[in-house]
Amino acid sequence: MNTSISRRQFLKASGLAAAGACAAGLLTGCGGSSSGSASGAASSGSGSSYTILYDSQPATLNYLTTGTDLEMVVGANCVDTLVEYDNKGVMREGLATSWDWDVDTLTWTFHLREENWVDCNGKVVAPVTAQDFVDALKYVLTPDYAASNVGLVTAYIAGADDYYNYHLYLNNANTGVVDDDGTTYTVDGSGVVTVTAPDSDPATYAPVDFDAVGVTAVDDHTLTYTLTYDFPGFLSLLCYLPYEPAYGPLLEETGDQFATSAETTYSCGAFYLAAYESLETWVMKKNPENYDADNVFIDTISRIYNAEASVNGPEMIKRGEIDEATIGSDILDSWLSDDTTKDMVSMDRPNTNYTYFYMFNFMPFSHEFSNWSVEGMDAEYEPENWAKAINNTNFRKSFLYGINNSVTLAVKAPEGYDNYKLNTITPPSFCANADGVDYLKCGDLANITEFFDEAKAKEYRDAAIPELTAAGVTFPIKVQMPYNPSSTDWDKQCQVFKQQLEGVLNDGFDFIDILITAGPSDSFLSSVRRNGKFAFLQCNWGADYSDPQTETDPFYQAEGARGSRYAFLRTGVEDGFITGDTADAVMNYMKAIEEAVKITDDINARYDAFANAEASLINNALVVPMGMSIPAYIATRLNYWEGQYASTGFSNKRLKGIHVLDHYISMSEYEANRDAR
Predict the structure, then answer these.
(1) Residue 572 is inside which H or E element, if any?
(2) Which of 2, 509, 557, 584 could be 561's S-S partner, Cβ–Cβ 3.0 to 4.6 Å?
(3) What are phi and psi of 163, to 5 degrees?
(4) CB neighbours of residue 506 within 10 Å
(5) In what order do the strands lie in the sheet with 222-226?
(6) Quick one: pLDDT at residue 290?
(7) pTM for this entry
(8) Distances (CA, A) of 442 to 10, 232, 437, 550
(9) Which residues contact 525 (CB under 8 A, 6 or more apart)?
(10) DSSP code per residue over 263-275
(11) Strands 281-286 vs 49-54: parallel, antiparallel or unpaired
């Protein structure tokens, strides 16, 4: 029998976040149509609707392949998961009514309830079966579909990595792919793929059938997953997109066109996708066939495209045309001081699973991968000069100690901004070890304190200047810092950041020149971050499951991996972009993560190991912490405190269980809910 972390330990470890982040829903719910009234008591009724604007076009609605916030809306609301969370962060039954764990076989068994698939008209198509989970996972593991979260499957499900890699190599062979390092792929008549890398012996890969993957439909209502090891966070992982079901015959019929329209999307959740028109609208309607339909209180959800939503939304709120809009910092004071609008302003429910940090681009040049190309920074931003600069540890540490996060966070949180500041990547109360100790108090993370120190920042700057000069760096060093124009106040944060950091580091020497650039509103991540078109970028990460390993995903790369990580740290070392002490720091982090992952029999040791690795990442200024998600100031008629809550996954995006009120929520109502814990 394998030694394992017990279910008791897991529940104890994940329970801290639930206990610390929940609040009672004190507001009373109601139905009724949209109203611009700023006051009034909630009332009961039916026929409720919810209308909101969106200004960034989703690249896809395919919940099996996407990983971005806007694109999660359909998967979160129209497709149910095996397990889910209540409004206080406690795990409960979803499509599964019960489950069992066998440590000897590393197998989870789930027993499914009766549920149906419906089409875009709400018409029943077929029952949901265990095979739908199997077919969906096969889709995720098909390289042609480029699922962004495939790593959440290959890392944990037995046989999944072998299956995915074989079919990736087979595709490369069939299409004549040659990697940037000269690696070639060939396939013989029996399907064996040969991978030949320069200066290496050829490696062969025999065909791998999907039957080798650890997911099985025992019968229509019994599903099993066999893991590669006893992974403590697996149950919470099931609340994320790649583990959702999809109707198998529809997947087979549509292929890469799955979930590109309402007609190609079937639903088994609280809502169904009734209509979708690109750059126009999408509509979700209550699914009366859902097992939990009695707890769905919104009949119609309408999202309307408006390129100027940040400007038009507040005015449409005043006219009673929509139910929710963000109140940006440029108008917040006027709304709070106006008697007609002050009681229409509240804040969104805090979302503790997202953290923000700054990343350096360690690969600012054009680079060919096996599955995509990175363009790198434009010549005007002097990528060669930047590449030399970021290899200098003192240069990076001048940023680490020179950035005052309180100033930047105050743009979005004029009051209480220090409550959202972080000196780590992982937020507080995310998880706790077997003794109930918060993860941030484990290992070397316990020793991390406030970084901002002007004197230290200048010391590191002064130490860096002669080193950089000797390396041929010219000053001021251009620092391209993009932002997404569709994200409220991001541009203002960049302006404040520039003023603050240049004020510290350019004191007495023309050290840096932060160049703020506007990226595209649509497909910002693929166009900017994943394409390497930045020097320094505010990034975020949303935890996928209740275990600190999830916080390594933006940074860790396996040896030889060509995955979409935020700064391609290991790739930078392997391909010669990152050298010297910086390369050593990168590889020490990678090795530390690899050792931490192996620890499954002692949750305290596991958490200490991950904490030590995270601390090294930060102390070497490979990443610069910023803060947690700051709840936006909003005008809304939704009682978000009734909705599902979790520190991982997409639970917070679900509108199941939430009422539309007949008035906009005031700050006093918000405070009452926030403090009721």
Answers:
(1) helix 569-574
(2) 557
(3) -60, -50
(4) 16
(5) 96-102, 107-112, 222-226, 215-219
(6) 98
(7) 0.73
(8) 16, 17, 7, 16
(9) 68
(10) TT--B-SSEEEEE
(11) unpaired
Q: Is 602 helix (H, G, I), strand (E, B) or coil?
A: coil
In the Cβ-directed half-sphere of 251, how many Cα atoms lie within 13 Å?
21
Per the CB < 8 A criterion, the answer to whether 117 and 126 are in contact is yes
* CA dist., res. 464 & res. 505, Å (int): 11
Q: Quick: pLDDT tens for 572-600.
A: 999 898 999 999 999 999 999 999 998 98
d(C-alpha 235, C-alpha 11), whole Å: 10
> Angle formed by the axes of helices 490-505 and 393-402, to 10°?
110
Cα separation of 358 and 354, whole Å? 14
CA 54/CA 649 separation, integer angstroms: 21
**Buried/exposed code over 245-269 (b: 16+ C-beta within 10 A; e: otherwise):** bbbbebbeebeeebbebbebbbbbb
Alpha-carbon Rg for the chain in angstroms: 25
Distance between the two ends of the chain, CA-based, in angstroms? 41
- The C-alpha atoms of residue 8 and residue 475 are separated, in whole angstroms, by 56
Q: How many angstroms separate the CA atoms of 632 and 184, rounded?
A: 49
* Strand ranges, E, within 176-306: 184-187, 193-196, 203-205, 215-219, 222-226, 271-277, 281-286, 300-305
Residues of the chain with pLDDT under 50: 1-46, 677
Q: Which residues contact 430 (CB under 8 A, 6 or more apart)?
A: 16, 17, 352, 353, 439, 440, 543, 546, 548, 551, 647
CB atoms within 10 A of CB 511: 24
Query: How far is the C-alpha of 533 from the C-alpha of 203, rounded, in Å?
Result: 34
DSSP states of 448-482: ------HHHHHHHHHHHHHHHHHTT--SSEEEEEE
pLDDT at 10: 33
* pLDDT tens string 390-405: 999 999 999 999 999 9
Residue 151 CA to chain centroid, in angstroms? Answer: 13
For residue 513, the SS3 value is strand
| Cβ atoms of 59 and 526 closer than 8 Å | yes
Domains of the chain: 59-269 (3.90.76.10), 355-627 (3.10.105.10)
Three-state secondary structure string covering 143-165 = HHHCCCCCHHHHCCECCHHHHHH
* Residue with the two structure tokens 């962060």: 89
Q: Is 32 left (phi over 0), alpha (psi -120 to 50) or beta?
A: left
What gap in Å lies between CA 516 and CA 497, rounded to an integer? 10
Angle subtended at Cα 346 by Cα 343 and Cα 351, rounded to the nearest 5 degrees: 170
For 312-379, the DSSP string reads HHHHHHHTTS-SEEE--HHHHHHHHH-TTTGGG-EEPPP-TTEEEEEEE-S--S-EE-SS-EE----G
Beta strands in 71-228 (DSSP E): 83-85, 91-93, 96-102, 107-112, 116-118, 124-127, 184-187, 193-196, 203-205, 215-219, 222-226
Burial of 189 (0-12, 13-18, 19+ CB in 10 A): exposed
Find the largest Cα–Cα distance for the chain: 77
Evaluate whether 492 touches 329 at the Cβ level (below 8 Å): yes
Q: How many whole angstroms separate alpha carbon 167 and alpha carbon 156?
A: 18
Question: How far apart are the C-alpha atoms of 261 and 240, rounded to whole Å?
Answer: 21
Residues in the chain: 677
CB-side exposure of 270: number of CA atoms within 13 Å?
A: 26
Q: Supply the pLDDT for residue 391.
A: 96
Q: Are 4 and 601 in contact (CB under 8 A)?
A: yes
